[in-house]
Predict the structure of N-acetyltransferase domain-containing protein.
Amino acid sequence: MKFWKFFFKNKKKCQVNEINKIFIQKIGKDNLYLSTCKKVNLEELERLCDSVGWVRRPLKKIKFALENSFLMVSIFQITEANKRLIGFARVTSDGSFNATIWDVVIHPDFQKNGLGKLLMNQIVKELRKHDISTITLFADPEVVKFYKHIGFIIDPDGVKGMFWYPI
Amino acid sequence: MKFWKFFFKNKKKCQVNEINKIFIQKIGKDNLYLSTCKKVNLEELERLCDSVGWVRRPLKKIKFALENSFLMVSIFQITEANKRLIGFARVTSDGSFNATIWDVVIHPDFQKNGLGKLLMNQIVKELRKHDISTITLFADPEVVKFYKHIGFIIDPDGVKGMFWYPI
């Protein structure tokens, strides 16, 4: 089956909406595609998160979180026989001023190939379409360097990221 | 006019919804009321933000941001003759795991009275009702101490708040 046929056969599940003007584009080689479609298969996402060792979370909560995310960007490897989710990130936002990026993940088999940068650049591009100017995230120590490299800044003018956790 | 009459006379503009089970409660004395009603008067909010010297933002963008906020908490001073917005904060969230608090403001005439703490405690309480466990914010240097005092932590396990701004 041709790629476009493959992708569009579930048209109902993945329609272009006002947030997702461009919802899929081919990136580089290896049949990799970047998508801003908001319909993400939960089991596929679970497998991707498993691949990087994240603690499992209740599917119902994940479903609700995805529904309430402002933006999602996915990377798929698509062959005639298979469509595999290999990268993902999502964003909460007020759609106007502020956005926060969460759950950035690239499958280990595809890391160190610039896909993380592509994913993040697409997020910034989509948010800028909405004139959102404060794009934030919380970076684990091991990925701070990566985010710095793509233009994110730590503690600008002494602004500190702070957390409240239940005890 | 009695307070409840005053507040309920525009019932259409301030109804309880699934997020705002408790949408108003009296706090302390001085006719102060805490509300989680999502209908906020833009001009009132503008005046409050002016009072702390914030740069004005386009009303249309503010309206959209409020509509896309997951939670808003306001403090009003309500007399028989007047209802005045004197405190405000709002939250973006996926409604499930993560939330970020923005635009925390208390009118200078009412600062140093514990209202900021009341406002923040209410936000945490509301978010915990949804079992949201990662509650975040970005604090300017002069308010870091305040947020620490009410239980927020800077850079837990080396996690860094990072920003991307348009150049």
Observations:
- Residues 19-153 of chain A form a domain with the Aminopeptidase fold (CATH 3.40.630.30).
- Chain A has one domain: 19-153.
